[in-house]
Please model this.
Amino acid sequence: MIEKGVFYGDAVGEFEKTFIKSVLEKNSGNRSQAAKALGIHRNTLGRKLEELGLNNHHKARKTAAR
Model:
């Protein structure tokens, strides 16, 4: 199941990205609710989104939904 040459850090990053996207979607893009569900501060979630390159993606989806 694990491919040769897959680095631990890359795998963890992909898991985080998928997991956070899922939690955000379940909370309709609401960062405060998503952060609460994740058990982290809203600012920490914002930093994680920035690090994972998800920051603009969810802002754009939220704006488009209005």
About this structure: The first helix runs from residue 8 to 26.
